[in-house]
Design brief:
Layout: E1 10-14, H1 24-31, E2 40-43, H2 53-68, E3 72-75, H3 85-97, E4 100-103, H4 108-115, H5 119-129, E5 133-137, H6 139-143, E6 147-148, H7 151-155, E7 164-165, E8 177-180, H8 194-197, H9 199-209, E9 215-219, E10 223-228, E11 233-238, E12 241-246, E13 249-254, E14 258-260, H10 261-265, E15 272-273, H11 283-308, H12 316-336, H13 340-356, H14 358-361, H15 369-388, H16 392-404, E16 407-412, E17 415-420
Parallel strand pairs: 1-5, 2-3, 2-4, 4-5, 8-9
Antiparallel strand pairs: 1-10, 6-7, 9-12, 10-11, 11-14, 12-13, 13-15, 16-17
Helix pairs in contact: 3-5, 11-12, 11-13, 12-13, 12-15, 13-16, 15-16
């Protein structure tokens, strides 16, 4: 894999785990192509907005020094707007000397905004052409494609699925890519967080937004795709696979295998046919897509709330709002014909939401049944609505959760009454 002085270097894309001991094998493999005693530089832009950005960069620098064996320094360029002339000149000096340049986690769109049309990123691109080696992980990898996935904006903020214009770093080498790290992410447990937290339904929509000329390059976690631009070859290392999707075809490559860069340029090779994509959006697709996306946003909001909130200190109105919004979105999605896998995610989120607040439903010494009655009545109303929509699983979840909390429901001709056990 050693680069020739008159050929470009390598670009290594990592799905995650970039600073773990197992992935040090990848770093050393890339560094082995450096002729003589090389130097490394950490470019800190993707996480430049973080309050501990300096600590993150220094930790990466210490890792490269210890596990890769290269003298390392931080080429600090946290923000294109706030960087002083002196800071820019310092970063440029370090990048000019570096044979090994690393950038990692943070925000893909922040990296795009602060690298685009800057001397710093122009120099990075030139150093690759001159034979240097660039290692990009997570957010930094996503940012350099032709199209960039706005992960936080979609997953955390709830924006509609879309792409933004990326830095298109690989265009001089004939590559038009949408790079997706965390391809096989499973942090969601019972809900789908593959494809960098997008999940299948949202990523289906995202793929349909890409032109046919763009290849999706998916990189599993703790996995690397080493692109040798001089040799025209990609090598896979790590624990997982690299996936190439284009024009309805999918090819997967395990660790230890290689494939030609021509595959990313559109060469036809044997691969697994993806399911037939949905037709161009029409009234029926829109009728299904909007409720599905709305439901996914509510599920993501509940899961994020459960993951960050101090449940015991929350007001009961928070449960009421989350439960009401999620139940309504579930009913709308079921009525629109949204697939069972998405509905199952919503029911799981509702179940976890009710369990998490179970102790808040039980009256304390200073709290009477009258204090919790409005919330119990709301949950009973949600259950009735679920039963009318024939959403039996959700209705049963609400009844069972209330039972666990000591609330007994009694269905009768005039409606549902409740009492404390």
């Amino acid at each position: 894999m050693a680069s020739r002085p008159d050929s470009p270097g390598t670009v290594t894309l990592m799905g995650s785990g970039e600073l773990t001991r197992p992935m040090s094998k990848v770093h050393r493999r890339v560094a082995s192509a450096i002729r003589g005693r090389g130097r490394a530089a950490i470019l800190d832009t993707p996480a430049g907005f973080e309050l501990n950005a300096d600590e993150i960069a220094e930790r990466a620098c210490a890792y490269v020094t210890e596990y890769v064996g290269l003298p390392c320094s931080v080429a600090s360029f946290k923000s294109s707007e706030s960087a002083t002339r002196r800071e820019i000149d310092s970063a440029l000096r370090k990048l000019k000397r570096a044979d090994y340049i690393f950038a990692g986690p943070g925000s893909p769109t922040y990296a795009v905004r602060n690298w685009r049309n800057t001397r710093v990123f122009d120099l990075v691109a030139r150093r690759i052409h001159e034979g240097a080696h660039l290692v990009l992980a997570s957010a930094a990898a996503i940012a350099v494609g032709r199209y960039t996935l706005p992960v936080y904006e979609i997953y955390k903020v709830g924006e509609e699925p879309h792409w933004v214009e990326g830095l298109d770093l690989m265009a001089p080498y004939g590559l038009e890519l949408a790079i997706v790290s965390h391809w096989n992410n499973a942090e969601g447990g019972t809900f789908d967080t593959r494809y960098c937290y997008m999940g299948q339904p949202r990523f289906d929509l995202l793929e349909r937004l890409l032109p046919g000329s763009t290849a999706v390059l998916g990189i599993d976690e703790y996995t690397a795709c080493i692109m040798d631009l001089g040799a025209g070859e990609c090598r896979v290392m790590g624990a997982g696979e690299v996936t190439v999707r284009r024009a309805g075809q999918e090819s997967k490559f395990e660790a230890g295998t290689s494939f030609s860069l021509d595959l990313l340029r559109g060469a036809s090779v044997p691969g697994k046919a993806l399911p037939e994509p949905a037709p161009s959006p029409d009234a029926n697709l829109a009728a299904i897509g909007k409720p599905r996306e709305a439901l996914l946003r509510h599920v993501a909001g509940v899961e994020n709330h459960l993951g960050t909130a101090a449940i015991g200190s929350e007001d009961l109105s928070d449960l009421a709002g989350d439960a009401y919004d999620l139940a309504r979105a579930t009913d709308d999605a079921q009525a629109a014909g949204v697939e069972d896998t998405v509905l199952s995610q919503a029911r799981g989120a509702m179940r976890r939401l009710l369990i998490a607040w179970a102790d808040r439903l039980a009256p304390t010494s200073g709290e009477t049944l009258a204090n919790i009655a409005p919330l119990v009545d709301l949950l009973i109303a949600l259950r009735s609505g679920a039963r009318e929509a024939r959403n039996w699983a959700l209705a049963d979840d609400i009844r069972d959760s209330l039972s666990e909390m000591g609330i007994i429901l009694e269905d009768g001709p005039s409606g549902t009454a409740w009492r404390k056990r």
